[in-house]
Structures are given as structure tokens and as C-alpha cells.
Amino acid sequence: MYVGFIGLGVMGQPMALNLARAGTPLVVWNRTPARCEPLHAAGAEVAANPAEVFDRAETVILMLADQAAIDAVLGRGTPDFTARVAGHTVVHMGTTSAEYSGGLRDDIRAAGGRYVEAPVSGSRVPAEQGELVGMLAGDDDTVSAVRPLLAPMCRETFGCGAVPGALLMKFSVNLFLIALVTGLAEAFHFADRHGLDQRLLRDVLDAGPMASAVSRVKAPKLVARDFTVQAAATDVLKNNRLIAEAARKADLASPLLDICHTLYGETVARGHGDEDMAAVIRALEARTDGVHLHGSPDTEGDRA
Fold first, then answer.
1. Considering all CA atoms of the chain, what is the largest pairwise distance in Å, rounded to the nearest integer?
2. Would you call 41 exposed, middle or buried from its count of C-beta atoms within 10 A (0-12, 13-18, 19+)?
3. How many CB atoms lie within 10 A of CB 66?
4. Quick one: how far is CA 171 from the chain centroid?
5. Which of 274, 129, 134, 281 has the alpha carbon at shortest distance from 213?
6. Which residues of the chain have pLDDT under 50?
7. Which of 76, 77, 149, 193 has its CA 20 to 30 A from that of 69?
8. Where are the beta strands (DSSP E) in the chain?
9. pLDDT at 299
């Protein structure tokens, strides 16, 4: 029985490769066909379109960029939707709003399908290494059936109750991650502008109680000014926006998140959206240098 995988981007491609290399019979599709070539080389079959994936696989994993991409792949809002998802398990591993996920669950159930929400914590390198952390929400039986399938991609998985519990858990995790990396970038900016050796700062942090897997990946990038993407600033801004919206809807104070939201908005508006999230240091540097940015969509009026 084939497993379907749709969405072979920065995260999706290494995740699908880990499934293929583990021997999972896989049929894949991606909007950009060239992204399928490594999967084909690893033994996966490449479908001509999303409908073929559903025709050949009972369980289909979606690792797509946004809600519009998911709706398009599923044919949601068209007569194709019911035929595509009926009798199938749809595993949503991307990041969308909690409200969208709840609505998608309801529509898939009404069409005779099953739904699991399964976002992951981790960036490109953990995805390549099969070291992601998965969060699952949905009906107990469906989650239990899907959980073993995630083993080649995830070091550990956690049940988070009913939808949208997994996405809300990911938002909680990402809030900490965003604040952590922004604080790390500000520490390096502070040290740099005081004439300190940033390599020494990296070593002191590595030796102390604040060291973490995140700091040990991001600190060398800040030292080397290596902003090769692991988690793109554009994606971080999108996640930040989703978390901020969830905070507003629940009437929650989120002051740290809000300033990070503004800084990532400035980073993207300055043209660094395709760089790693550590590039948020560029926004800090611009502020210090008095280079003001006005009127960008994510620096004004978007605060919780």
C-alpha cells in the first residue's frame, strides 16, 4: 500500500527522502517537478498530479506552504474534493491557523475521510537527520495508525489531543524558538558593537547553562555571517503572524512575540526573507545605524 507525500520544499523533501530510504512505498508530487528527482532516485514513484497521489495512496501526507496550497491540492470547494479524500487519511504536517485546521478536519470527515494534524518542530538539518519532533492531534484510532509512519522523520512524537491541539502546541514551541533566536542575535549584535570577539562569545555560551541545540547551530551562523537557510525568515514571519493572531483571539498578552514579529517584518521587508532566521540581526543592525524602515506591512498595525 503506497503512502502519498505532497509538498517537497525545504522541509518536505528531506522528510520524504527519509520515508523512502526507510522502505516506505511512496508516491510523491510537487508543483515544481525538479524537486521530485531526488525522491525518484531514492525509489519513490512520481505522480503526474495530486489526484493520482490520492488514487494510489490511502494515506496522504501534506507538507505544503499555506492554506491556499492545501485547498488547491485537495480540490477543496470543488466537486473533486469528496472523491479525493473519501476513504483516505489526510495528514497535515505544515503550519496553518488553528481555525483553518479545524475547518479542514470537519470538511474531510463530512466527505468520508480521516484527518490527523501533525506539525513538526525542527528546521532543515533535523529534517535531513530524521530528528524532528512531531505533535499529533485527531481521533485516537487514526493518530495511532499514523504514528508509526512518522518514525523515519521524527525522533519523537507526542499526542496533543483533539484538533487543533497539535498546532497550538507547535505555536507554543515556536514562540519560545523565535524569542530565543532573536535574543541570541541581539546578544551577538551587542557584543559586536562593543568590539568583543564573537567567537569568544560563542565559546562562552557553549560552556554555560544557556547552551542549547539551537544556540549551537545559530551562534556559528552569526559568527560567520552565514545566513544560508535552515528556517527562512519569511517562514518565521508567517509562523509569528499565526501565533500573534492566536494570541489576539484569546486576549493574551504577548509582548516578546510582538517585538519579534516587528523585527522579522523588518528583516523580510529589507529583502532578507530567503535567508535564515538568524538574519534578524540585520534588522537590529539597521535600527542601531539609524536606518529607519517605514510602511512595511509587518511593522505597523500588526501587534497583538
1. 63
2. exposed
3. 14
4. 10
5. 129
6. 295-304
7. 149
8. 2-6, 26-29, 45-46, 57-62, 89-92, 114-117, 120-121, 132-138, 154-159
9. 40
